[in-house]
Structures are given as C-alpha cells and as structure tokens.
Amino acid sequence: MLECQDPVGAKERLTKWWHGEAVEGVAWAIHALRKEPRFEPPPAPEGRDWTQRWTDPAIRIPQFLRQFAAVEYLGEAIPYLDTQIGPGSFGLFLGVEPVFAPNTVWYEPTLKDLAEGPGLSFDPDNHWFRVHVEYIQAALAVAEGRFYVSLPDLVEGLDTLAALYNNQKLLVDLMDRPELVHATQARLTDLYFEVYDRLYQMVKDEAGACCFSAFQTWAPGRYAKVQCDIAAALGPGQFEEFVAPYLARQCERLDYAMFHLDGPDCIRHLDILLQVPELQVIQWTPGAGQPDVGDPVWYGMYRRILERKRLILLGMPLERARPTVEAIGTRGVYMVTGGCGVEEGLRALEASRGW
After folding, report:
1. What are the residues facing 71 on neighbouring strands?
2. DSSP strand pairing (105-108 vs 97-100)
3. Contact 1, 309 (CB under 8 A)
4. In the beta sheet, which residues pair with residue 148?
5. CB neighbours (10 Å) of residue 16?
6. What is the pLDDT of residues 112-147, one digit of tens each?
7. Rounded to whole angstroms, how far apart are CA atoms 119 and 105?
8. Contact 257, 223 (CB under 8 A)
9. pLDDT digits over 145-167, tens only?
10. 59: exposed, middle or buried (Cβ count in 10 Å: 0-12, 13-18, 19+)
C-alpha cells in the first residue's frame, strides 16, 4: 500500500479545506520551476507513434520523472503521476475505440442504437482496462513514497454516453427516447463503480487518500472529479432530469467529489449543482476565448458558490491570486498555480499567510 510524503503539512491543510475549515492564509498549490533538477531523471524515449507515446509506461513514466525532477512542490502541491490516457477512460473500458493525437485522445462511438445502452457491461479483461492497470502497476513500482499515482480521468454519465453513442444522436434521444437515456444512465453509474473501486484499491494510500488525474487535487478518502461537459447543450430542465439525479448517486458513493464546470454555457446549471448535497467542490474552467479564472467578471459566481457553503478550486495565475481572494475571501478557496520560479512562489506563499 502506498505511503506518500506530506510536503510541508499539505495534507493536513487540504483536509481542513475539504471539510470547510479555515486554514492560515489560503489553500494554495504552487508548482514552481526549479533552476536545476533535484535529481538526474532517466531519458524518456520518444516512441514510434502516438499510441505508444500515450500508453507505454516505459515512455510515460520517464516523462513524468523529468517533470517531477524539475518542479518544486510548494504550499498544498502534492506530487502525483498522472495515469490518464485521454479524457474519458471509462468509455474505453466499455468499448469505445481511441484515436490518439499529440495533445488529446478522440473517441469513436460504438453504440449503434441507444437500445443497446441498458445492456452495457464491463469486462476486467478489456484491453484498455488492462493497459491502465499495467501502467498504474508500473508507476507504483517506481513511486517509492515520493509521489502518488493518480486515478485516471474516467468521466461518467452523459459525457461517457455521448462518447459511446454520438453527441447529436444523444441530444435527439433525450427528447424522443428519454426512458432509454435514464436506463442507460442508471447502468453507467453501477458500471462506473465496478471500474472505480478496482482502481481506487490500487492507488489509495495507507489512510485511504488518493489523487485524481485532473486539476492537481488530493483528497483524504474516496475522491473523483465529476463532470458533464455536454451540459453546454442542455437546458436547465434537461440538466435537472438527466444529470443531477445520477450525479447525486455517484457523489453518494464517494467521500469527496468535485464538479468540473466548463465554460459560460454551463453556468446556467450552477444552482442545480449547488443543490446536490454530497458535491463539495466546484472547479471552474472559463473555456477558450474567455477572461481567465482571476478576472473580476467571475467574482460574483465565486461568491455565489461560497455563500452556499461549497468550496471552489481555481487554476489561478500568480498575479491574479491576491486580488481574487481580497474580493471573495480565503475560506473555501483552493488555488493551483504553475510556471513561476521557486523564489517567486515562496514569496507569494509567504505573503498569502497574511491575507
């Protein structure tokens, strides 16, 4: 069982944040760039094609070790090796075929008709599940308590159903065959935990804590990032009917859950999200072409979330951090910043203790 180091009390402070308790200053993870690597990392082979570059532990692990050697983990930054092989591994385990590209993975739907959805099943011998398991096993073998090994970016619900089926066809069936959408959603929720429970048992530490691949987050128990990006195409009534109940069921089976709210077209669903009792955190991604996370245009939304006793996670540019917390407060806020130097990061952390 994994036993990871605790950089400067980061786990204790993050546990307080998850429980809505005050921390000195603000919970803030800074991934600072060292002038010199802390150790000489192994060479990282390039691989023959994008499939191998995404899936071969002999390539992915040395790539991470080069990053791990080059980064100083400050504040609440807890190092972990990211095991995601594209945004939506859960769909792969149910039959979706991947198309590997330089910066992402695309998925080819396999369901010809939604009537197949309620009969979906998970086979632990699925090729792509075995690829993930072998990658995680190889990563755990080299972690040696220096870093966590994350759960992959599974994705769930309507986003996984869209990957299995087809976005446009799914949107039509929400109106024409809602009973099949509901039956498939219920089946996907059960299958999700067949997958999650197996992988969580592999990566959890001695206290049951784990990291999820997305958004640099650690939690002191069973944790997942949850989402519904296709919600950008849904009205509030559809979101309340087809997303919220299954999201609630998923969160009930987790200790900690964070919703990835992606883009302005999803903001209309925020009030419904804030009614899901077991959903503790909203992570905000403005999307391409929008003001960054620290822009004052979003302050009202942040206050709205915090007033409802929820937490927020913000990927915050360093220069935006202080104005943001001065505007919305520090309690319940967790910021993640990268790209600065070590001295700059340390100065910012020291200053933040007085905010």
Report:
1. 33
2. antiparallel
3. no
4. 80
5. 14
6. 999 999 999 999 999 999 999 999 999 999 999 999
7. 26
8. yes
9. 999 999 999 999 999 999 999 99
10. middle
| AA identity, residue 51 | T
Distance CA(266)–CA(290), nearest Å, equals 13
Element (H, E) at 92: helix 89-93
Full DSSP string of 97-115: EEEE-SS-EEEE---SSGG
Distances (CA, A) of 137 to 33, 134, 151, 240: 28, 5, 12, 39
Q: What is the pLDDT of residue 103?
A: 87
Cβ contacts of 55 within 8 Å, gap of 6 or more: 85, 100, 131, 135
Residue 227's identity, in one-letter code, is Q
Separation CA 321–CA 317 (nearest Å): 7
CA–CA distance, 76 with 14 (Å, rounded to integer): 7
Q: What share of the chain is helix, strand, coil (3-state, %, to 5)?
A: 50, 20, 35
Separation CA 112–CA 43 (nearest Å): 44
Q: What pairs with residue 262 in β-bridges?
A: 285
End-to-end CA, the chain? 38
Q: Is the dihedral of CA 273, 274, 278, 280 positive or negative?
A: positive
